Amino acid sequence: AMLIANGRKIKSYSTAFLSELPIKYLLHQAQKDQLSYGGLFSPLLRLLATHFPQLSLVDDWMDDQVFGDTCRHQVDFKLSETFINDAFNCIETNPYKTGKVLKAMLSKNPTEIWPFAETFVKHVKCVLGEGVPRHIQELYREVWLRLNTVLPRCLWIMTINALLDINSVAKNVTITQENVLVDPLQVLRCDIRVFRCGPILKIILRILEASLAASRCQLSRHLLDKPLLEKSG
């Protein structure tokens, strides 16, 4: 209110712009190289917890230690969109092939597999099939968590849209960052099979938890940016 009364403009960046910044990934890099960025890490972490609570969930940070940059045993397998598509197309008839591709993705750094994130996520409904082994579903979740360390907010929106329960009335519905900030429960507008698939349900619940935190933060920021001024006289 004081800023507005003094005629000062409050500058803010759009949600879409901020979602494209690898904030979490950069913070992890600062955490790993404390010798070079020791003075920056603590203030950055404090800012993250204040302004981006959805990126500082305890479960996320614990999983990041497991699924982050530290590579597992390297698998000599050259990934491509074609290989990934083929693997998911035969997920029920040849789960071994799918598992091989997923393990190859797990063996690489998150930034190396991020270019395949869109291809990977668009096949999430394939994982919901009744004939898909639980082991493959768990591997899928692990790869998703690995991707979640790079650009989590982009990944969440891709996942939400890929799992949308599209009916004949709303075939061209696309959920955006802004939609989720206004109504986080849109995350639950997903294929009913999600609620019968534990590993994918965990993904949805993680996105929902983060979306609720982001929505609360957005509301607080909105109240600060556009406070209600008392009418004088």
TrEMBL record:
Organism (species): Reliquia santamarta
Pfam families registered for this protein in UniProt: INTS2
GO annotation, biological process: snRNA 3'-end processing
Name the UniProt record assigns to this protein: Integrator complex subunit 2-like
This protein's GO CC annotations: integrator complex
InterPro entries found in the cross-reference section: INTS2 (IPR029321)
